[in-house]
Amino acid sequence: MSSKANEKGVADQEKLIDQDQEEPEQQLAIKVKRSYHAISLVITLAIFTLAIINYLCFFSSTKYNGFCKSSDGDLDTILVVALVVSFILYWVECCQSASNEYLAHDMELMEYEGFIRGLKHARPQIGVKIECYHYTKPEGGLEYYTDSEGRQKTRPKKYEDRVLTFASTNYFNYASCEDDTGEITGVLDNGKNLVKLQVDKYYSFDDAESQNKFIAFKENFIEKYRKKDEYIDDVTIFEIPGHLPHVMVHSKGYQEPACLSVNWFWVCSFFLISWPYGFWFELLAVRNIITLRKLIHKKKLRMLFC
Q1: Interior/surface letters 256-291, b for 16+ CB within 10 angstroms, e for the rest
Q2: Is the pLDDT assigned to residue 73 strictly greater than 60?
Q3: Domain ranges for the chain
Q4: Closest by CA position to 29, among listed 204, 178, 196, 253
Q5: Mean pLDDT of 242-269
Q6: Which of 201, 286, 282 is nearest to 238 (CA)?
Q7: Higher-pLDDT residue of 162, 92
Q8: What is the pLDDT of residues 174-210, one digit of tens each?
Q9: Distance between CA 96 and CA 30 in Å, rounded?
Q10: What is the pLDDT of residues 42-51, one digit of tens each?
Q11: In whole numbers, what is the pLDDT of the chain averaged over residues?
Q12: 125: phi then psi, degrees, rounded to nearest 5
């Protein structure tokens, strides 16, 4: 985010108001479309394409027949850099892959039910995180760049740098909460023994008074540090202890394939076949989404649900 705090506060209030809405007591797991891992496929194809081109440039006689030459100069350096960047992007994508998270949190159905019960009874945290910063002027600074002939040079900076000077987090001290998730059904009611489950989370306030107190808490916290620097950004934090965004659930007695594990995922990633592995995993399971809902109260309740 890159807006002033006073502008952002209004947007956040509107978001909170929109979020406070009635939800059904019974929740059906939502089946979603398969992911074809397009980003992984594109990066993998780019690596193989660049590797072939680099091979032709460095080990083929066509190097001296104009294959890697252009009117701007030698393309050797550019092709090598592009290949290295593609490898970096590939490993970043693997590390952030949802498949890795699913495989790392494999649960049998009974274990999953205990996991959900724990989340329903967990007391969530809701708060605000702020960052204060300014931009430095580019005068006098230098940056490195590569010219058309592959040579590194320096030039004056054209862009301003964002300098973070202060950051803080504060949590809202509410009195009580209750779980408003309701009964979750349909997780394995799809003819499949294996499910990729995305676990979302959602919060709302019991009444306008509770919501307004949180808005006042947030505005006061922002106002306290408004003069720390030229700009201030804020974000609302909502955390449930033990929450995992992606889990894999299998039915009781289901024998998973031996290669369906985190270790095999990284072995396939090392040999640049993470896309076929991910696509096979996608065909093996179905994808569902459930949402945990928490209702926040500023006043103390007689019975606490979380």
Answers
A1: eeeebeeeebeebbeeeebbebbbebbeebbbbebe
A2: no
A3: 5-297
A4: 196
A5: 93
A6: 201
A7: 92
A8: 888 889 888 887 777 667 789 999 999 999 998 888 8
A9: 23
A10: 999 999 999 9
A11: 81
A12: -115, 135
Here the tokens at position 144 are 């490195």
Our CA angle for 55, 89, 153, nearest 5°, is 75
Spatial distance between the Cα atoms of 39 and 86, rounded to a whole number of angstroms: 12
Tokens of residue 222, six digits: 């922002």
pLDDT at 36: 77
Alpha-carbon distance of 143 to 157, in angstroms, equals 6
The answer to whether residues 241 and 122 touch, using CB atoms and an 8 Å cutoff, is yes
The three state secondary structure string of 199-220 is: EEEEEEECCHHHHHHHHHHHHH
Residue type, 128: V
| Lowest mean pLDDT, pick from 40-49, 157-166, 243-252 | 157-166
Could you give the CA distance from residue 172 to residue 213 in angstroms, rounded to a whole number? 9
**The one-letter amino acid at 161:** D
Is 219 in contact with 9 (CB distance < 8 Å)? Answer: yes
Cα atoms in the Cβ-side hemisphere of radius 13 Å centred on 137:
2
- Rounded Cα distance, 209 and 230, in Å: 32
* CA atoms within a 13 Å half-sphere pointing along the CA-CB vector of 174: 33
Q: Determine the 3-state secondary structure of 31 from DSSP.
A: strand
* Strand residue runs (E) in the chain: 26-28, 30-32, 69-70, 73-74, 106-108, 125-136, 142-146, 152-156, 161-171, 176-179, 183-185, 194-205, 231-239, 246-250, 286-297
